[in-house]
Amino acid sequence: MRRRLPTGSFWPTDAPARRGDRVIPLRDQELLRQRFAVELLDQVKIDFFTQKDLPIYLPGKEPCRYCRPTQEMLQELAGLTDKISLRVHVFDDDPEAVRQFGIERVPAIVLRGRDGARLKFYGLPSGHEFPEFVETIVYLSRQEVPLPEPVARKARRLQEQAVVRVFVTPTCPYCPQMVRAAYALAMANPKAVTAEAIEVSEFPDLARKYNIRAVPYTIINDRVAIPGAIAVDALLEQVARATGVALVETAPAGETTPAEPPPEEGPPPERRTHGGLIIP
Questions:
Q1: Which of 47, 109, 141, 233 pairs as cysteine with 121 (C-beta 3.0–4.6 A)?
Q2: Model-level pTM?
């Protein structure tokens, strides 16, 4: 089994306050440069979707708080190796790419290797998510699927289309496990499984829609909901059962971390639940 080399991490509060500041600390960039030189084999393509900076406030058009730091983080990563190529798309100006990759919101990241898998991350992959994000790039570059072979064989037999959405936050230590499991199933069978990680504190509308009070929280085809972290073989069973199943939570739940609200930029909400969700 491939030995993991050190990977740094950063947190949302570390996002640069001024243009020209670095998102990934220099010491971590050097660790990543060394790791990429040793471990990356094939090209990994990253498509990033953002929006134009809004010079003035427009009613109904929210500014994208994390678009700029996410783009700068990706540019820093791509600058560490010639094995990573980055394309930047403006959501409103590139409808063809938006349709091609099925992008619903920004910031959005699509990771692609030679195996055909398209792995999405909505938001800024920081905190506990950053090392797993880097690990995913390495897996794609090496065309490795991080699954036991019996599980990989079962995953390749899936025929029904499944969209696996894993809701995470940067401070959740259990979330990367579920992101890796979802991504691994998509890498094993990219024709049947689409995997998305969503940094839910950046998208409070989704937290309200799905009543997410703790993470990780995984939803398959908007039918099956899984609170907490479970083993990848258990996730595969739920993916196989997802078609035609009413939206229910599996039991028992795995380990979770309370979901966190996003930073406030405008008037405060009227009230919040103990789980940090905004109540209109």
A1: 109
A2: 0.84
